[in-house]
């Protein structure tokens, strides 16, 4: 099945309102654009999703099945939005820092202060020797590096 991310949203709006027109108003689209997206979705699936009886619009069994999937897809997208918003706001997440052993105590003090300001962030401090640190950097095995010169600034 090939569908755009917009089509489940349009389908849900039509199913919720039992109306192409009200769905179009909610989504700020034209009614023909909504009808076209539903038609494309039905063609792609190979089954009708709605049945019109007089002026009333009803979900078919295929439509009911698709609605469940669309609701789960929408929830997953909302969860992803929430996760990214949390990452942007420093309200949760992980911070991994590797320092040379010469910066261990200074880095620990800085991270303690950061941790007090952002208690939801999980911090991992890795202390290693300079040679290993440079080797890990060369092969992109470190997420973050604090150099003694940077901390003194």
Automatic annotation (TrEMBL):
The UniProt record lists the keyword Electron transport: no
Check the record and name the InterPro entries matching this protein. Answer: LysR_HTH_N, LysR_subst-bd, WH-like_DNA-bd_sf, WH_DNA-bd_sf
Give the top-rank taxon of the lineage listed in the UniProt record for this protein. Bacteria
A GO MF term: transcription cis-regulatory region binding
HTH lysR-type domain: residues covered: 3-60
Signal sequence, start to end = none
Q: Which UniProt keywords apply?
A: DNA-binding, Transcription, Transcription regulation
> What family does the entry list?
Belongs to the LysR transcriptional regulatory family.
What this protein is called in its record is: LysR substrate binding domain-containing protein
Origin species, per record, is Enterovibrio nigricans DSM 22720
């Amino acid at each position: 099945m090939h569908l755009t991310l917009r089509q489940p949203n349009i389908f849900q709006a039509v199913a919720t309102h039992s109306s192409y027109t009200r769905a179009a108003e909610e989504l700020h689209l034209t009614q023909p654009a909504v009808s076209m997206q539903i038609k494309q979705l039905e063609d792609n699936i190979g089954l009708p999703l709605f049945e019109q009886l007089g002026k009333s619009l009803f979900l078919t069994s295929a439509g009911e099945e698709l609605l469940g999937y669309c609701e789960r897809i929408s929830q997953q997208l909302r969860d992803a939005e929430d996760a990214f918003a949390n990452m942007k706001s420093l309200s949760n997440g992980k911070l991994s820092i590797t320092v040379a052993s010469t910066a261990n105590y200074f880095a620990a003090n800085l991270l303690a202060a950061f941790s007090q300001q952002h208690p939801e962030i999980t911090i991992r401090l890795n202390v290693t020797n300079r040679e290993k640190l440079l080797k890990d950097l060369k092969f992109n095995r470190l997420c973050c590096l604090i150099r003694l010169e940077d901390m003194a600034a």
